[in-house]
Amino acid sequence: MAAEHELTPSSYIGHHLAFLQHPVGEGSFWTLNVDSLVTSALLGVFSLGFLWWVVRGATSGVPNKRQAFVEILCEFVDNQAKDIFHGDRRFIAPVALTVGLWALLMNAMDFLPADIMAWITHFFAPHGFRIVPTADVNTTFALALSVWLLMIYFSIAVKGLGGWIHELFCTPFGANVLLWLPNLLFNLVEYISKPLSHSLRLFGNMYAGEIIFLLLWMMAGAGLAGTLFAVPLGLIWAIFHVLIVALQAYIFMMLTVVYISMAHESH
Amino acid sequence: MNINLTLIAQALAFALFIWFSAKFIWPYFTRKIEERQKTIADGLAAGEQGRRDLEAAGKRAHEELAKARERVGEIIGSAEKRDVQMLEEAKAAARAEAERILAAAKADIDQQVARARESLREQVAALAVSGAEKILRREVNPETHAELLGRLKKEI
Fold first, then answer.
1. Stated pTM of the model
2. Which of A75, A105, A206, B115 suits a disulfide with A134, CB 3.0-4.6 Å?
3. Pick from A23, A251, A264, A10: which is nearest to A143 by CA?
């Protein structure tokens, strides 16, 4: 990696976990993680562009294989949404599709070999480029908070502002005046825990996966014996990680649907 | 893991992607799927209709066949009847013709007989007259004895 520094385990990992950041103002908040943004935007444009291209040329007759693949994908998402959400799925299904596909592709960036990608990205980002956007807590929080806002929006849209506030104070324990405070506290915990668990679950899995890959590659760099051990271990972890990547994307999508459909229902 | 402006930028990107997906992808997908569902439903209904039509056509063909068979029986029956009738008529006509021919022949024969008798009678009369002439050895005037001769003729 950086030839001028001594390569220690912590410097290797630290280097791989450094964001390509671009300050846009004063303070630590006003920076952009350009790597996460660019990668996620490229993946989103690529995946949705592909769907758009296929769907625009779709036929209602006998579909070709490409269209059949997209249809299977869309129908899978639609069926998942249908099982959970009972109502008009014209909004919730595309949300689920977007979030599921996007998260899946962003997670899948973890499969790209870290050091080869680093070698490529060093040409324009010498101080590090994080290739997995979902291993950036900003990305997962952005997704979870967007879903959280949608949740609140639908709560108010379906039940009315009064209905929503009534629900905050009068559920789940009861409408007694003495229970207003416990109800509110309970609901606050729920409203805070939902986006936290939603985003941190995905972030944690992806971050841990990335770290384990980095540890394995560090071992591979520590001599011949390390390489011999690291290769099968890396293979095993990569295969296991296929499951994690798909599963976490699926869970993230399902939780999105669950949270939004819960907002439609009264307690 | 520090929160920064990326959060808001990613949220905006997410919102944009959701908007694009809900506006430009999902409606086309559902429309195509619904069209296909309709096509399949129509096809199935058409198949069912065709099957029912076939069944009805088979039934009708069966009925027509039975009717035709019945009609053929009728026609054969009436033809046989007509056959017998025609035979009877021909027989009757032949019999009548035979009778007519027989009657004509009989009349012819009668006529011939009468004519032969007439000529015979005349010959006999002439013979008698000539005989009488010879016997009497004299001329008998046929005019003066015409009445006598006529009576003689009648007697023969």
1. 0.73
2. A206
3. A251
